[in-house]
Amino acid sequence: MAEYRIPERLQVLGVDIEKSELPYHQKRVAVTKEFTFDAAHHLHAYDGKCTNLHGHTYRLVVTVSGFVNAIGIVIDFGELKQIYRDVIERKLDHQYLNEVLPKMNTTAENMVVWIWEQFEAALAQYDAYRGLRLEQIDLFETPTSKATLKREWMI
């Protein structure tokens, strides 16, 4: 078994490692972040219990890819969180989805496309030189039921 060792000192930028060494590679890498929001909705022209007003704790899983920047990061997880807060959470969290989304049946299948469009537009505002792009979005209505959208399906 390996022995655990506490470092005697932290590495120092410019002494132990140079800034030019921070990006280890120039490969496309995907990063994923998960979010949750609560909302109510009901479905039109549907014969089942979802015809009635009900709510979900939605889980949104967003995967973005790109090339690392000068310090080895594709996109900061905090930036992804801010995009989510600005374009998704502020619009959908604790809302009646039938009123706040464009006219549509508020199925997970319709919602995941709308979320993709919002996220993609917001992502375009970030450093384009890194080639940032959405790769996949999963929208869970329940822990075992989700709608998935992949980049190649949006082309």
Structure overview:
- This protein is an alpha+beta fold and 155 residues long.
- The chain has a single domain (24-153), classed as 2-Layer Sandwich (Tetrahydropterin Synthase, Chain A), CATH 3.30.479.
- It has 3 helices and 5 strands; from the N terminus they run ββαβααββ.
- It has helices at residues 77-92, 97-100, 108-123; strands spanning 28-41, 54-67, 95-96, 133-142, 145-150.
- Strands 3-1-2-4-5 form a 5-stranded mixed beta sheet.
- The longest helix has 16 residues, at 77-92.
- The chain starts with 27 loop residues before the first strand and ends in a 5-residue tail after the last strand.
- The model has no long low-confidence stretch (mean pLDDT 95).
- Pathway: Purine metabolism; 7-cyano-7-deazaguanine biosynthesis.
- This is 6-carboxy-5,6,7,8-tetrahydropterin synthase.
- It comes from Alicyclobacillus hesperidum.
- Zn(2+) binds at residues 41, 54, 56.
- Its EC number is 4.1.2.50.
CATH-level-2 architecture: 2-Layer Sandwich
Structural class, please? alpha+beta
Shape: elongated
Residues in β-strands, percent: 25-35%
Q: What is the CATH superfamily label? A: 6-pyruvoyl tetrahydropterin synthase/QueD
CATH topology: Tetrahydropterin Synthase, Chain A
Q: Helix share of residues?
A: 10-25%
Number of domains: 1
Return the average pLDDT rounded to an integer. 95
Q: Give start-end ranges of low-pLDDT stretches.
A: none
Number of strands: 5
CATH class: Alpha Beta
Please give the order of strands in the largest beta sheet: 3-1-2-4-5
In angstroms, what is the radius of gyration?
Answer: 20 Å
Listing every helix as H and every strand as E from the N terminus to the C terminus, the arrangement reads EEHEHHEE
- The first-to-last residue Cα distance is 50 Å
Number of helices: 3
Q: What characterizes the major β-sheet?
A: 5 strands, mixed
Organism: Alicyclobacillus hesperidum
Family: Belongs to the PTPS family. QueD subfamily.
Cofactor: Zn(2+)
Pathway: Purine metabolism; 7-cyano-7-deazaguanine biosynthesis
